[in-house]
Design a protein that fits this description.
- The chain has 20 helices and four strands.
- With about 450 residues, it is mainly alpha-helical.
- It has one domain.
- It starts with a helix and ends with a helix.
- The mean pLDDT is about 85.
């Protein structure tokens, strides 16, 4: 992991000094954190004016409509820094940035370090680990949310940690980390069956498979209890989610057939599915195209038997990534807010992308020169997009590339291009390291 420490330091530096407040969405979580710290209650009645992201429960109180993990994790920091604040006083930007840094960026950096260590133990080349480090730390949508408290960063960090624990056969720990990830983002629950299947897949015999699955489930008991207790206390049932009592502003006036609570459909909308994959508004193609390069390669590799030769851990990792993304795409394409509002990418899919970075590192050495060139090109697009978003520090809907290119030019022309200059230095150094890694593996 040591050769990649500069990448991790650069990631933490950018998260610390390029915070994005994110508007009213994170404020829903900060409202719940202040209520816990100051009044020791779960409802946000005094702070409901901060954000439209609320749910009005049957008891008449207003609650955050977000998954509770980021609020519960952040409550101790709120108790230290936010006590005694008036209801009309919003959290200071520095405090919001510190919460994002310590509860998202730092755990994610630790998870990436563990993932790179596992790749090194598997004998992955320096170039393969280099690609994985860049893809996980900078080249995906979840990386863009590490400095704003949307909860996606926390979910991605704990999910990546759970996956590394699964392939490292520390299954109770994997269950615990997965449970915390679900507490941070409800959508992560869809990755649960693939994770459980991966535990089963790695077993040597059926009896051992049952034991491994039970160890994983046992690890998730504590976060499961917290999940049930929170939702029971707020919404009247252990599995009653806040979307049922969502602000009517976010509910479709006429629910489609088969839709739950007016916001989530049981069947996907195929037009939306296309937008999520290749659309310019939120598509994977325009934000992390290396993922789409990787997907068909994984299918071909599986068909050729490469995953079988690679061992049980390889097949488990392919199952988690491929099935997990498929499940999240199904869910997101049936959601009436599929675009994520003011979003810099497909944020409801974001938690799975760092896992693809781990997979990319694992199979990188199996690609030929053309395949590696495609992967690096796709990752290069993602890195440029990351730089533009962090340079402009903006979150805005619409076509992504035209907006951020225009904003970057305006920022620099106005003489406020300090962010661009810093990022140019960071990514100039990154480009040099990447070029050296590519040349090192190019056949002489």
């Amino acid at each position: 992991m040591r050769p990649f420490l500069p990448w991790i330091v650069a990631f933490l530096f950018l998260c610390a000094f390029f915070p994005q407040e994110g508007g009213v969405n994170p404020l829903s979580r900060f409202a719940a954190m202040r209520a816990l710290a100051t009044e020791q209650v779960l409802h946000i009645d005094p702070y409901v004016s901060w954000t439209p992201d609320w749910a009005k429960a049957p008891d008449g109180h207003f609650y955050s409509n977000k998954a509770p993990g980021p609020m519960l994790l952040g409550a101790p920091l709120a108790w230290v820094f936010d006590r005694g604040r008036a209801a009309e006083e919003l959290p200071a930007p520095g405090y919001r940035g510190a919460v994002s840094f310590f509860l998202q960026a730092v755990p994610f950096a630790i998870a990436v370090a563990l993932a790179l260590g596992w790749l090194g133990a598997r004998g992955v080349s320096f170039a393969g680990r280099n690609f994985a480090a860049l893809a996980m730390l900078f080249g995906n949508t979840s990386a863009l949310y590490m400095s704003s408290y949307f909860g996606h960063g926390s979910a991605a960090a704990f999910l990546l940690g759970a996956v590394v624990a699964v392939v490292g056969r520390r299954l109770a720990l994997a269950g615990l980390l997965f449970g915390v990830s679900v507490l941070c983002d409800y959508g992560v629950a869809l990755v649960g069956p693939p994770l459980l299947g991966a535990c089963w897949l790695m077993a040597e015999d059926p009896r051992d498979a049952r034991r491994q699955a039970l160890r994983f489930l046992a690890g998730g008991v504590l976060p499961g209890v917290v999940f049930g207790a929170y939702h029971w206390a707020c919404f009247g049932g252990p599995f009653t989610l806040p979307m049922k009592f969502q602000n009517p502003e976010f509910v479709e006036p006429v629910a489609r057939s088969g839709q739950i609570w007016g916001i989530i459909g049981l069947l996907p909308d195929f037009k939306t599915l296309g937008e999520l994959l290749v659309g310019s508004k939120r598509g994977i193609l325009f934000t992390q195209p290396w993922v789409l390069v990787l997907l068909p390669a994984l299918i071909l590799e599986w068909g050729k038997g490469g995953w079988k030769e690679g061992g049980r851990e390889d097949r488990a990792l392919a199952l988690i990534a491929g099935t997990g993304l498929s499940a999240l795409l199904w869910m997101n394409s049936g959601f009436n807010g599929w675009h994520g509002g003011s979003s810099v990418g497909p944020r409801y899919l974001s938690m799975i992308f760092p896992v693809f970075g781990l997979v990319a590192g694992l199979v990188f050495d199996r690609f030929g020169c053309k395949g590696k060139a495609l992967l690096w090109t796709g990752l290069g697009v993602s890195l440029v997009f990351y730089a533009l978003v962090f340079a402009t520090r903006d979150l805005l809907p619409g076509a992504l590339w035209p907006h951020f290119l225009r904003l970057a030019i305006e920022t620099f022309a106005a003489g406020t291009g300090r962010n661009l200059l810093v990022l140019a230095l960071v990514f100039g150094w990154a480009a040099r390291k990447v070029s050296m890694a590519i040349l090192e593996l190019t056949p002489k």
